[in-house]
User: Fold this.
Amino acid sequence: QVQLVESGGGLMQPGGSLTLSCAASTNIFDFYAMYWYRQAPGSQRELVAGITTGGAANYADSKKDRFTISRDNTANAVYLQMNNLIPEDTAVYYCNARFESFSYWGQGTQVTVSS
Assistant:
């Protein structure tokens, strides 16, 4: 069982920047591919970005210009840097860890973008 704890969410003004963090409780963090998803009110959860065990990043097409995913295997953590925030980025952001048939989710962190 892997516990994931997201942090860093908050209320932001449009155009601002925010970095989310996800800490994982596992000794084999580098075995896990990591993902960020988000879910806006009334919408389905959607993939934002993913990063492989080797550090290769991939993004949903609409996110790649403003978002950057990274990982620190020594800290057992994955990050999502979000720039030029827009109101449509308002959502609960979830961290997901996957290894073979295992998939774990965090509780999420709320990001609200509003003036």
Residues 51 and 114 are 29 Å apart (CA to CA).
